[in-house]
Amino acid sequence: MVIRFDNIPDTVKCTNNFNPDLVDWSSLSEEDIASYFTYTDVLLSNVYLPKETIICKNSNCTDIKHKIDVSVMYNHIVTALFEASKPLCKPRKKGKARPGWNTYVAEFYAEACEATKSWAMAGKPRQGPIFEYKKHTNAKYKYAIRYINKNEQTLRADSMAKKLLCKNSKAFWKEVKFVNNCKPSLPCTIDGVSGANAIAALWQQHYNKLFNCVPTEFYKVDNVEGVSTIKTHEVYQVIQNLSVNKSTGMDSISAEHVKLASPRLAPLLHFALLPSWSMAIFQTL
Ligand SMILES: [Zn+2]
């Protein structure tokens, strides 16, 4: 069977504000993955298990308390996965690459940093050789910055020409893309409608019509037979078979969050999914 995590019942809502997109799973080291695994193991072991709900054998249960229990448990699981992945978040690189930085500035920048560090360690003196050296290296750094700012156009052209000459096409096109990175302006009028909000509403209507031309029906699963035959090892297997490198679903859990977590996750999801099957409203695919 196929479990789609974006189809987890809408009684279950994730309230986490953490942006999991910042985790670049493909760049993680083995230690990162091992620490995520260990961390999820610890956090998942603290997920509260509502015993009464878990042992409820009624596959068509409508008990509101059981519904809330499942929702709370699922949120605990999601939060545990997010918390464990927080240390893996790498801040996105800010600022833009400046032509000539490596050639004209990097050396002075490193020198100025070192000098400032030594000056701070010496108790930030206001005079003397350490202070003078810091002043001197900072001035050289600022001068280098001014130089590349003044000659940005020329340096950019030189940098691109150099990449082209060296047949470094990947870096060349990256720079071309960077230089041309200006967003196209939005049209003022579409189909006689003008104004950003009105145009947005027009597109909403358009796609609403397009995507709903074949009617889909929500149905309430109110007579579930045989679902209780799903076993924990099947949930585990499904987790193992998830494709990685995909965008997240509505609950913001990526396949990697689930796949790289401790195997404790499978029985917990099993507990969370089983009762929800009968309580939730699923959308037909
Ligand atoms: Zn129940």
Please give a structural write-up:
- This protein has 285 residues and is mainly alpha-helical.
- The chain has a domain at 5-91 and 230-279.
- The protein contains 11 helices and 4 strands, in the order αααααααββαβαααβ.
- The chain has a two-stranded antiparallel sheet with strand order 1-2. A two-stranded antiparallel sheet has the order 3-4.
- The longest helix has 22 residues, at 64-85.
- The radius of gyration is 28 Å and the shape is extended.
- The two termini are 14 Å apart.
- Zinc ion binds at residues 53, 56, 58, 61, 63, 66, 275.
Concise overview:
With about 280 residues, this protein is mostly helical.
Write the layout of secondary structure elements.
Elements: H1 30-45, H2 51-54, H3 64-85, H4 101-121, H5 129-150, H6 152-165, H7 169-179, E1 189-190, E2 193-194, H8 196-211, E3 218-220, H9 232-240, H10 255-259, H11 265-279, E4 281-283
Helix pairs in contact: 1-3, 3-11, 4-5, 6-7, 9-11
The chain binds zinc ion.
N- to C-terminal distance: 14 Å
Beta content = under 5%
Question: What would you call the shape?
Answer: extended
Q: Helix tally?
A: 11
Helix content: 40-55%
Structural class: mainly alpha
H/E order of the elements?
A: HHHHHHHEEHEHHHE
Main beta sheet strand tally, sense and closure? 2 strands, antiparallel
Strand order of the largest sheet: 1-2
User: pLDDT average, as an integer?
Assistant: 80
Supply Rg: 28 Å
Contiguous low-pLDDT stretches (5 residues minimum) are 1-16, 280-285
How many runs of DSSP E, i.e. beta strands?
Answer: 4
Ligands in the model, by name, code or SMILES, are: zinc ion
